[in-house]
Amino acid sequence: MTYLLLLPLVLPLGLGACTLFPRLRRLRRYSGVIASAVILGAGVAAIGVSAGGDALLGLGGILRADSLSSYMLAVVGAVALVATWGGLRPEEPAGPLPAGSPPRGMYAALVCVFLSSMSLALLADNLGVMWVAIEATTIATAFLVGHNRTRRSLEAAWKYVVLAPAGVAIAFLGIVLIYAASTGSETPTLSWIGLTALPLDLDPGLVRVGAALAVLGFATKAGLAPMHSWLPDAHSQAPSPVSALMSGVLLSVALYAILRVQAVADAVIGPEFLSALLVAGALLSLAVAAALLIRQRDFKRMLAYSSIEHMGVMALGAAIGTAAIPAVLLYVLSHGLIKASLFVLAGRLLAVEGTSTIAEVRGLLARRPGIAVPWLVGMTGLLGFAPFGIFFAEVGVFFAGWDAGLGAAVAAALVLLLVVFAGLVRLTVGMVFGPRGREAAAETAVATGAGEPAGEPEGPDRAAHGPALPIALALAAAAIIPFLADPIGSVLSDAAAALAGVR
């Protein structure tokens, strides 16, 4: 079964290399879809193999897939499939490239490298290899963020290059200290399964400092405040499929790294220290999102700040501990599917409207129902309405927090979520139900005595402006999955048990 571990790593890289050949234009267009489908298939197969508690091992134990990493691999594949399929780029025209354009196939190749790197971060049974993989995602996404070569996209890419690697460098220092803590034992190691073996004698002081630095560094990649400032610019300026990948799964992969480090620290120094650190980061993230969503003017940045909010709730669940982990894992999947769909739709909306300014996008339900209907459904799920998984995940996190004695943190989080809810509802209602462009102009003309504007309003645009099936499947899955107690419930329980078994 070693091939299940190697396939998500090797095949995307092979596809990425093939996309650089000029004659393989069709493969270049569908390479991300193929790679995502393979990762999803490998993740689902690994879930089935590891369901009995037996982990898959490969490359002498460097690669390891237990129930948690298998589940996360399937999430990466599912969300990436929505992003790459829903965000299929137009066929590249033949002929010479315009001056300043990136080489043909570079976008597709970087997406494949990105997917392979995220898979390696999930499958590596070594904190050092996991760090290398997460750093590789930074390199790939830095070029993807600036792919459009506009002034704002290049500025966002440079900001990302400065801030994200700085956080990952802090995580590297923390991992070095964790390794130093193991040098007093007979077998110094960075294997997370080895570090959490209770008989292993680790230096508690070094583990405390190392775990704090590692969590702080990975929290930068997860978009948690106050290390979040790269995220709104990067997500708003990147091509929409890349924004979908970054928000839908890259942030969750960084959260996975935090959970692995937290498992090591909990086994050595107990859960209280990192729990307090995560609660602080969670509430600060919610506060930042609430403050900035109230007067947001750009719908892609609106989705980016929403990601900070949702990562804050997930971090609160991680702080609560074992009882909240199944809800957090459901949150990861539901948020990924919904947010990937919304970013893909945001890209289509930007293409047809020519602007991402919320004030200039009005009356979508009347003018562009082909985009407005799935957008409204996705925003309903993102706001935490039933029957979408985010609703049940948030309820699970908050009840677990109350039972764990974190009632004050839960109450503060609920208040901040209400502020976020109000801001998102106001922005969404304005975009979807506001007066149509010509109707707004007519109202202004009548109010000023200028009379009716010339011309008849255009008929409604019912086109989806892209593949509709991946969006429909993603939103339907986000609504149906919470009700599948078997097999989804057992998968979540097995994944949580895999993490709890080493805590």
Notable features of this structure?
ComplexI-like_HydComp, membrane, mainly alpha, Hydrogenase HycQ, two-stranded antiparallel sheet, 503 residues, 3 domains
Structure description:
InterPro entries: ComplexI-like_HydComp (IPR052175), NADH_UbQ_OxRdtase (IPR003918), ND/Mrp_TM (IPR001750). Keywords: Cell membrane, Membrane, Oxidoreductase, Transmembrane, Transmembrane helix. The protein has 503 residues and is mainly alpha-helical. It has three domains: 1-91 and 102-125; 128-270, no CATH class; 284-503, no CATH class. It contains 20 helices and two strands. It has helices spanning 2-18, 25-50, 67-86, 106-123, 127-145, 151-182, 192-195, 204-222, 230-237, 240-269, 272-293, 299-320, 325-353, 364-367, 369-382, 389-403, 407-433, 437-448, 469-480, 485-500, and strands at residues 56-58, 63-65. A two-stranded antiparallel sheet has the order 1-2. α12 runs antiparallel to α17. It is globular and about 75 Å long.
